[in-house]
TrEMBL record:
Subcellular location: Nucleus, Nucleolus
GO MF, one annotated term: RNA binding
A Pfam family assignment: Methyltr_RsmB-F
Keyword Methyltransferase: yes
Keywords (A to Z) from UniProt: Methyltransferase, Nucleus, Ribosome biogenesis, RNA-binding, S-adenosyl-L-methionine, Transferase
GO biological process: maturation of LSU-rRNA; rRNA base methylation
GO cellular component terms given for this protein: nucleolus
Protein name (record): Nucleolar protein 2
InterPro entries named among the record's database cross-references: MeTrfase_RsmB-F_NOP2_cat, MeTrfase_RsmB-F_NOP2_dom, Nop2p, RCMT, RCMT_NOP2, RsmB/NOL1/NOP2-like_CS, SAM-dependent_MTases_sf
C-alpha cells in the first residue's frame, strides 16, 4: 500500500517545496515572492530616502531587505537536499535586485527552511497566501540603517534566518494583497513626511528640489515595476526549465530515507508537466521512458498500486488523465439507491426518505429510478422503507447493464452471475414480475444474499440456481435475453475495494480473462436468436482494463460470428477501444461503452450489447454447428430422434 493510500489526507508541503508546484499554487507563491521582493526593495528605497540617499546606510537596508525577502522565499545555498529533484535556476528566479546579488551566496543558512512553511491547511493554498507580511514588516523595523560593513553583513548572513511565527502563517491572500497595498501607502506617507524637513516653510527652491526628488522617486518606482515584470517572466520561464529528474544516487538515497509524500507528489506533477510539453521541457537528452519510469515509480508509491496494475492502467489514459483516475479512486462515489418499482414509485420513495431527514436528488436524466443520497441522519440500509423492499442500495453504474439489456414483460431472462442480485431484481422490476428471471451464480455462499434480496424486494418471477456459468447451455437454454455481469478484477471499483491495487497480478488477469471468454460464449449460446422480442446478450464488468472488456468481446465476435454488437441504448459513457496497443479490434467495438469514476462520477464500468442473429454457426468447412443452449439444438435433436424412430 502506498503512502497516499495509507494517508488519504492531503499533505502539507514545506514552503520550499510549495514554491515549485505548478499551476495555481505556484502562481500564488510567485505572486507572493514578488510582492515580498518588491516590498523589500521599496522599503530599502524608503530607507535610502530617509537617509537622504547617502549611499552606505541605504545599501545596508536594501541588502537586509533583500535578505529578508530571500529568506521568506526560502532561498538557500549549499548542497541540495538529498534525493530532491534539483530545479535549475530555481534560486535565481526569485533573486533580489542586482546590487544585492553579490551576497546571494552568503545569506543562506537553509537548515530549517522546512519549518517555515508547513501549512496546517494541507494541500491547498491557504498557508501559501499568508506568510509574507510579518517578515517584511519586522524587517522594516529591525534593520539598522547604518550597517554597511561587509564583514558584519557576512557574519549576519551566517546567522539563523529569522523564522516567522507559525501563528502568522495563517492569513489569506486578501490580507496579503491588502498589506502590499498598505505598504505602498505607508511608503507614500512616510515620503511626504520627510519633505517637511525641520518644519521649515516651503520655498520655491524647495519645491524644485521636491519636484526633482519626486521625479527621481517615480523613475525608481518605474524601474522597480519593470524589474518585477522581468522577474515574473523569469520565474515563468525559469519554471519551464527547472525540473530535472533525480539521479540514480538520489533515487537510492530516497529509498533509504523515510517516505516523503510531499516530495513524490510534487515530482509527479513536475514529470507530468514535462511529459505534456516534452520538446520544450525535457532535460537534455533524457528519453521519455526515463520520465515515464520515474512517474510510474512515484505513482505506485503515492497511490499504492503494484507495478503490474499501474502499467496496465497507464496504458488506458494520458498521464494527466491517469492521475485524475487515480485521484478519483481515492474518493468514495456517492451513495445511490434504486427505487423498487415493484413496490413504490421514486417520487413516493423520495418523499418518505426526505421525511426522515434524508438529503437526496435524482441521479441523473438517464434513470427514472435512481436517487443519490447526499446525507442521511438514519442508516440508509436500515430504514423501514429499506426493510420493506422499497429500494436497493445499488451503485449507479450497476444500473447500466440492465438498462442496456432492457428486459421485457413475459420474457425468459438469464442472469448468469447474479449474486447478490442488484441486477436480477432490477430485471424483475422492469418485467413487472412477469415471465422468468433465472438468477444463477456459481457461489452458493453469495447466493444467500441474492435470495434475501429477491425476497425483500418482492420479486416473484425469479428462479435461483448455482451452476458454473460455463456449463449453463447444457443445463438450460433458449433465453430471450442473457446478462453476463462477469466476475472481474474490479479495477473500476477501487474506491470501494482498495485491495485491488495490490492483490491483482498477471496470473489473476490471465485466469479472469480466460473465464470471461468462456462465460461470454456460454452466455451467447444460452440466448435464442429466434426470440420474437429479444435475442440479446449484455456483457458487463466493473473493470476498466481492455483485456477484460473489448478483448473479451472481440474474442466472442471471432468465435461466434452469429452475433454482432449493437447500440447499448446508453447515451453517455465513452466509446470502447477499437484498437489498443497496436492491436485492432472490429470497428463495432466503438458501440460498447466505458464509464470512469473521474469522468462520470460513478464506478468504472464496461457495457457491451450483442444481438444473436442465428442459432447456427457456420464452420470453416461450411457445415453448421449449433452450440448447446440456444434451444434450437434441443428441437433438432428431437427431430433427429423422430426421424430415427
Ligand atoms: C460482478 S459479480 C455479479 C454481481 C451481480 N450481477 C449483481 O448485480 O449483484 C460476479 C459474480 O460472478 C460469480 N461467478 C464467478 N464465477 C462464476 C462462474 N463460473 N459462473 C457463474 N458465476 C460465477 C461470482 O460468484 C459473483 O457473484
Amino acid at each position: 500500500m502506498g503512502g497516499r493510500a495509507k494517508n488519504k489526507q492531503d499533505v502539507p508541503l514545506p514552503l520550499e517545496l510549495e514554491k515549485r508546484i505548478d499551476g495555481k499554487v505556484t502562481k500564488k507563491l510567485n505572486d507572493r515572492l514578488r510582492h515580498e521582493a518588491a516590498r523589500a526593495r521599496k522599503q530599502a528605497a524608503a530607507a535610502k530616502r530617509q537617509t537622504g540617499g547617502r549611499g552606505a546606510p541605504a545599501k545596508g537596508a536594501a541588502k537586509a531587505a533583500a535578505e529578508t525577502a530571500d529568506k521568506a522565499a526560502g532561498k538557500r545555498k549549499g548542497p541540495a537536499q538529498s534525493a530532491l529533484p534539483r530545479k535549475k535556476a530555481a534560486v535565481t528566479t526569485t533573486a533580489p535586485p542586482k546590487d544585492e546579488d553579490e551576497d546571494e551566496d552568503e545569506d543562506d543558512d537553509g537548515s530549517d527552511d522546512h519549518d517555515m512553511g508547513a501549512p496546517d491547511g494541507g494541500w491547498d493554498n491557504a498557508a501559501l497566501e499568508s506568510d509574507s507580511e510579518p517578515g517584511a514588516d519586522s524587517f522594516g523595523e529591525e534593520e539598522p540603517s547604518d550597517d554597511d560593513d561587509e564583514g558584519e553583513e557576512d557574519n549576519d548572513s551566517d546567522k539563523e534566518p529569522a523564522r516567522m511565527p507559525l501563528s502568522l502563517l495563517d492569513g489569506d491572500d486578501d490580507d496579503d494583497d491588502d498589506d502590499v497595498g498598505g505598504g505602498i501607502e505607508s511608503y507614500d506617507e512616510f515620503d511626504t513626511g520627510s519633505d517637511d524637513d525641520g518644519g521649515e516653510g516651503v520655498t520655491f527652491r524647495d519645491m524644485e528640489k521636491r519636484s526633482r526628488r519626486l521625479d527621481a522617486q517615480r523613475e525608481e518606482d518605474e524601474e522597480l515595476a519593470r524589474m518585477e515584470i522581468d522577474e515574473a517572466a523569469e520565474v515563468v520561464e525559469g519554471e519551464r526549465e527547472l525540473f530535472a529528474l533525480p539521479s540514480a544516487e538520489q533515487i537510492a538515497a530516497e529509498q533509504d530515507a523515510p517516505p516523503d509524500l510531499a516530495q513524490v507528489q510534487l515530482r509527479i506533477q513536475e514529470v507530468i508537466r514535462v511529459l505534456n510539453n516534452f520538446a520544450q521541457l525535457r532535460d537534455g537528452g533524457r528519453p521519455r521512458s526515463d520520465y515515464m519510469d520515474q512517474l510510474k515509480r512515484d505513482m505506485c508509491f503515492y497511490y499504492g498500486y503494484n507495478d503490474y496494475l499501474m502499467d496496465k492502467l497507464l496504458q488506458l489514459f494520458t498521464v494527466s488523465e491517469a492521475v485524475e483516475f487515480f485521484e478519483a479512486n481515492e474518493v468514495a462515489r456517492p451513495v445511490t439507491v434504486r427505487t423498487n418499482t415493484l413496490k413504490t414509485r421514486r417520487r413516493e420513495l423520495a418523499q418518505a426518505l426526505i421525511n426522515r431527514g434524508v438529503n437526496l436528488d435524482p441521479i441523473g436524466k438517464w434513470t427514472k429510478v435512481g436517487l443519490t443520497i447526499f446525507d442521511s441522519p438514519v442508516p440508509i440500509g436500515a430504514t423501514p422503507e429499506y426493510m420493506a423492499g422499497h429500494y436497493m442500495i445499488q451503485a449507479a453504474s450497476s444500473f447500466l447493464p440492465v438498462v442496456a439489456l432492457a428486459p421485457q414483460e413475459n420474457e425468459k431472462v438469464l442472469d448468469m452471475s447474479a449474486a447478490p442480485g442488484g441486477k436480477t431484481t432490477y430485471c424483475a422490476a422492469l418485467m413487472k414480475n412477469t415471465g422468468l428471471v433465472v438468477a444463477n451464480d456459481a457461489s452458493r455462499q453469495r447466493s444467500k444474499a441474492l435470495v434475501a434480496n429477491i425476497h425483500r424486494l418482492g420479486v416473484a418471477n425469479a428462479l435461483v440456481c448455482n451452476y458454473d456459468g460455463r456449463e449453463f447451455p447444457t443445463v438450460m437454454g433458449g433465453f430471450d435475453r442473457v446478462l453476463l455481469d462477469a466476475p472481474c478484477s474490479g479495477t473500476g471499483v477501487i474506491s470501494k475495494d482498495a485491495s485491488v491495487k495490490t492483490n491483482k497480478g498477471p496470473e489473476d488477469f490471465e485466469m479472469l480473462t480466460r473465464l470471461q471468454k468462456e462465460l461470454i460464449l456460454s452466455a451467447i449460446d444460452s440466448a435464442n436468436a429466434d426470440s420474437p422480442t429479444g435475442g440479446f446478450i449484455v456483457y458487463s464488468t466493473c473493470s476498466v482494463t481492455v483485456d477484460e472488456n473489448e478483448a473479451v468481446v472481440a474474442f466472442a465476435l471471432s468465435k461466434r460470428p452469429n452475433v454482432r454488437l449493437v447500440e447499448t441504448g446508453l447515451d453517455f459513457g465513452r466509446a470502447g477501444f477499437t484498437s489498443f496497443r497496436g492491436k485492432a479490434f472490429h470497428h463495432s467495438l466503438a458501440l460498447t461503452r466505458r464509464f470512469y469514476p473521474h469522468a462520470h462520477n460513478m464506478d468504472g464500468f464496461f457495457v457491451a450489447k450483442l444481438q444473436k442473429l442465428s442459432n447456427k454457426i457456420q464452420a470453416a468447412d461450411n457445415s453448421f454447428v449449433v452450440p448447446a443452449g440456444s434451444g434450437v439444438q434441443l428441437k433438432q435433436q428431437g427431430k433427429k430422434k423422430k426421424k430415427a424412430q
